[in-house]
Amino acid sequence: MARVVVDVMLKPEILDPQGQAVQRALPRLGFDGITDVRQGKRFELELEGPVDEAALARIREAAESFLANTVIEDFVVRVETEEEK
Amino acid sequence: MARVVVDVMLKPEILDPQGQAVQRALPRLGFDGITDVRQGKRFELELEGPVDEAALARIREAAESFLANTVIEDFVVRVETEEEK
Amino acid sequence: MSLDTVKNALEHPGVEQPFAELGLKPDEYTRIREILGRRPTSSELAMYSVMWSEHCSYKSSKVHLRQFGDKMPENDAMLVGIGENAGVVDVGQGYAVTFKVESHNHPSYVEPYQGAATGIGGIVRDILAMGARPVAVMDPLRFGAAEHPDTRRVLPGVVAGIGGYGNCLGLPNIGGEIVFDPCYQGNPLVNALCVGVMKHEDIHLAQASGAGNLVILYGARTGGDGIGGVSVLASETFTENDGGGSGPAKRPAVQVGDPFQEKLLIECTLELFREHLVAGIQDLGGAGLSCATSELASAGSGGMRVELDTVPLRDHTLSPEEILMSESQERMCAIVEPAHVARFMEICDKWDVIATVVGEVTEGDRLEIFWHGEQIVDVPPRTVAHEGPVYERPYARPQWQDTLQADAAERLPRPGTAEELKATLLKVVASPNLADKSWVTAQYDKYVLGNTVLAQPEDSGMVRIDEESGLGVALATDGNGRFCKLDPYTGAQLALAEAYRNVATTGAKPLAVTDCLNFGSPEDPAVMWQFAETTRGLADACQILGTPVTGGNVSFYNQTGETAIHPTPVVGVLGVIDDVERRTPIGFAEEGQIILLLGDTHEELSGSAWAQVAHDHLGGLPPKVDLERERLLAEILIAGSRDGMIDAAHDLADGGLAQALVEACLTGGNGARVVLAEDLDPTVALFSESAGRAIVAVPRSEELRFSDMCKVRGLPCARIGVVDGDTLDFQGHFTVALDEVRAAHEGTLKGLFG
Amino acid sequence: MTIRVGVVTFPGSLDDRDAQRAVRIAGAEPVALWHKDKNLQQVDAVVLPGGFSYGDYLRCGAISRFSPVMESVIEQAQAGLPVLGICNGFQILCESHLLPGALTRNDHLHFICRDQKLRIENVSSAWTSDFAPGQEITVPLKNIDGGFVADERTLDMLEAEGRVVARYLDVNPNGSRRDIAGISNAAGNVVGLMPHPEHAVEPLTGPTTEGLPFFTSILKRLVNA
Ligand SMILES: Nc1ncnc2c1ncn2[C@@H]1O[C@H](COP(=O)(O)OP(=O)(O)O)[C@@H](O)[C@H]1O
Ligand SMILES: [Mg+2]
Predict the structure, then answer these.
(1) Which of A31, C540, C738, D37 has the smallest CB count inside 10 Å?
(2) Cβ D88 vs Cβ D60: under 8 Å
(3) Between chains, do A42 and B44 touch, taking CB under 8 Å as contact?
(4) 3-state DSSP call for residue C364?
(5) Which ligand has an atom closest to residue C554 CA?
(6) B and C adjacent (3 or more CB pairs under 8 angstroms)
(7) Using CA atoms, how far apart are residues C543 and C94, in angstroms rounded to an integer?
(8) pTM value?
(9) In angstroms, what CA-CA distances link C303 with B32, C213, C294, C670?
């Protein structure tokens, strides 16, 4: 079994109220020096078969058409390395 | 400027209704072979200064106390590599 | 750990069992051994331990709660009383209404969002299990001091959780309470009320009868969440830093709700009812399958056999003990005749709800549970579900009670000048407890279902239940922990009186009561005395007002260390109104109308909001209760609404006349000119919290008819002013612009939490 | 001739019965449509009601968009069938690309339920023809993901083509770009609206009855057609 991660973030030009709220809160909690925060989604997909190019292509398609709304969001598909797990 | 990523995921034993909804939908859209989906949050933090151990320690603290709800969530802090960007 | 079967228990009687860790006392464990004639298996021990916990067995409260039955007033409306998931009341035209308030206090402190969310989920399933369509929710809440940093963690989370779950379910939130007091700092109270509607013939009960009928578990898969939730989160082992829970293994004690799943469960269940496919039904709440199977079997005529390994799991590593204790949300258990199973499954499939036959009703009188063919439970179900331990806990009036009562607020310094009086009024209406609650209630959907006639900030929530006839129900919840601390007997009666008055003020006839009794540790005789006094006061008052208690909930151990919360009974009253068109709102919407004050104002400042805000004082005796007067006031208010004499009415409670006038003016968008009674000190006139009072606004053309009615019936009715302008003008004292009052009243919660 | 207006129920739809009631009060016949059924039963118009379809998991409307009923709705909407998406329905229409843009988390991050003042900016769409030009109305608004966003070019296009159907007045309750509360497609038959006109059709249960013209507009158009 292998894990593929899809990261979905709002496009830079789209307002991210959640990220902004975090950014505003951090200094109040004593965490300074953070100039920007963006909040997005992370999907962890467990695959049955091998993570080959074909599988990744299918996942990219699923991300494009479903996991992300490409009107406002960008996404990145990547295979999770063992170390990250 | 450097970017640090905080990934926040529900603990494995906690119900993840969002991930389940995605998982149930995928086969209907023709995407088979995905045995499990978990959905979490991804925070991208831009730092003013260098990303040294001290900075990471502070971010870990922010994640622990604020970005993640450690009653139900786990988190991972990592420096984003250029290639991922 | 290897499987502990019944056979094993017989063969190895000497095994040491961790009954104490599971919260059982040595004598309780001994009793289990006597019942079974052997040591329990680990699964049986798990079941007994959760079912005999305070939360599930009511072992400390039972002897006191009995009064609600013993002193029950004659009431034809009561269709199902205490003992079922919720009481059911006849509201006419063939309709029945079921309602109940429950607590989710400890879980909401540990994880505010999910704790509160699953609190809503749980009470909604109780209502659903009676056969009713849930139609509205309410949320009586208590938090620590408004300015305390932890309140900033707990309150927004709780509110978001209640909204997140309730909004997603499509249930309008029609009322509730938000009270701040340092006594709730480590013990916030998250009570949740749900009301549901059905036709008389649709009432369902939690019982398993008819050998051969099947036991179907449907809804969410069972996971490791909430294991030990009942025994850890709602028991004496709860301590402030116990966030992770100390249940078995490292299972989370926190449950996560899935309101979408619950919405499907509701629609699916209602369709099952509609096709008469359900012979008995029980929701899964505290104690999960242990509770549902034992209660169903106990209330039914036969026994039950369950194949536990057929339960659909989210986590395949769960042991049978854990499956039995899991409090995974959004699950129901139905008893279904074999001939109906196929159709039952079809409907579940239509709603994408997983349903599994997990067992059957048997001829015998045992609850037997199997795991891969081996018997792990063999118990008489009544001993688990209904014949748990009963304690007569010692109780004693605390020593400090006299000192507290002697320290009356009537002796505190009062504002001396007009300026001081005005400043006091602004301070009172801006205080967190009396300030506008829109910051919270705007996060709740009050419109969904399209039947909400009254909601926040009205005196009671009101929903239409029949679109043709306009039949509706009204609900209010109240509870004043400060009064209860001063005198729990009177305090409980005041809570009931206020909720009753609130319902009547909107024009509905009060019918029945539900209550959530939030207290400290029952092992403390002082707390137990408060509890005994509260139940006695409530039962006595219900008898006089003719409104039976139909169900409720007890939450003990709301204390941090030795310090208990104020005794806090939250009382919900349900009323019925024949035509919701006739409802009376609180707002002064028409300029020129006459303002009348009904009832008597006494010098009663002890325990009041004024004493708290102006002097941070709690002492003395709470206002006196006159239940006959409450009854009369209610009759007048209902008649006034029915006969179209009054256009607005607002009950007087916290903050007294001052607060009531401010709310009526701000809501209606009009000012008022008011004359305070000459024979009263202005502080008393404005801030006394004497019970049995209300203000009404009547058109000039109706004034005489209405005041004559009051005179004939013997209800004091004083003309105190007129709706007018854009100021609140207390003639001879001070005038304050409505805008200034509004800014003070509406700015507080936004400033604290926004 | 009775006008038949379909109201789709998705799993998690909440205001479906309210929408049906509004249709009835407007004088048309509501027809319940089920998400798993492609058959639109020859209705004259479709309402996608508010709620949390599929729990709003992933993104509001993202999962519903792929339901069987939406296949037919998308196809027929493109051929001119009047479709009104309210709140969650608006989100579904955007996810389906029948309308441009997207709805994102409210800028204040809270669910908000309030009586909202709007100005009707376009009275030529299928769903707004019964309003007076520039009419100001108050109807309930309730959502947590109500902020309308689109890129500047799209926003300019919507303005230029008069496709902003309704705008927030007094308060922008969610950070919507250019105070947009509702938009239409180029043909004017598909309208998405964040506020809830179906909750403002009876004096007893709504703040006003000013939501009703959304439902009567469609009658006039269909009867005249
Ligand atoms: N304070 C109370 N007043 C009246 N009835 C109560 C009270 N507390 C509990 N009950 C009743 O005792 C019964 C058992 O309560 P409970 O175990 O909480 O039910 P459930 O498991 O359905 O939540 C219910 O009928 C409930 O209404
Ligand atoms: Mg129950």
Answers:
(1) D37
(2) yes
(3) no
(4) coil
(5) 1
(6) yes
(7) 26
(8) 0.94
(9) 44, 11, 9, 65
State the nearest Cα–Cα gap between A66 and chain D, in angstroms: 7
Q: Which of C104, C617, C650, C745 is catalytic?
A: C104
Whether residue D86 contacts residue D48, with contact meaning beta carbons closer than 8 Å, is answered with yes
Q: Distances from the Cα of C612 to the Cαs of C177, C424, C752, in angstroms?
A: 18, 12, 19
Q: What percent of chain C has pLDDT over 70?
A: 96
- Which residue from C minimizes the CA distance to D205? C453
What phi and psi, each to the nearest 5 degrees, are found at residue D213?
Answer: -55, -25
Ranges assigned E (strand) in C363-507: 367-371, 374-379, 452-454, 461-464, 472-478
Beta bridge partners of D168: D118
Residue C727 amino acid letter: T
d(CA C521, CA C157): 26
Confidence of residue B71 (pLDDT cuts 50, 70, 90): confident
Catalytic residue flag (residue C55): yes
Q: How many CB atoms lie within 10 A of CB C476?
A: 33
CA-CA distance, B73 to B70, in Å (whole number)?
5
Domains of chain A, first to last: 2-80 (3.30.1280.10)
C553 Cα–ligand 1 center, Å: 5
Compute the distance from residue D178 Cα to the ligand 2 centre, in Å. 49
Task: Give the position, in ligand 1's atom list, of the atom nearest the Cα of C123.
Answer: 23
Give the ipTM of the model, two decimals please.
Answer: 0.92
pLDDT in tens, C285-340: 888 999 999 999 999 888 999 999 999 999 888 899 999 999 999 999 999 999 99
Report the side by side order of strands in the sheet with C727-730.
C648-651, C694-698, C594-598, C717-723, C672-674, C727-730, C734-737
CA atoms C680, C686, C691, C693: torsion sign: positive
Sign of the CA dihedral running C534, C540, C545, C551: positive
Share of chain D above pLDDT 90, in %: 96
- Which ligand does the CA of C84 lie closest to? 1
Do B21 and D66 lie within an 8 Å CB cutoff?
no
**DSSP, res C238:** -
Q: If we measure between CA atoms, which residue out of D152, D138, D145, D111 comes closest to residue D203?
A: D138
- What domains lie within chain D, and their CATH numbers? 4-224 (3.40.50.880)
> Is D54 in contact with B22 (Cβ distance < 8 A)?
no
Looking at the DSSP bridge assignments, the partners of residue C102 are C192
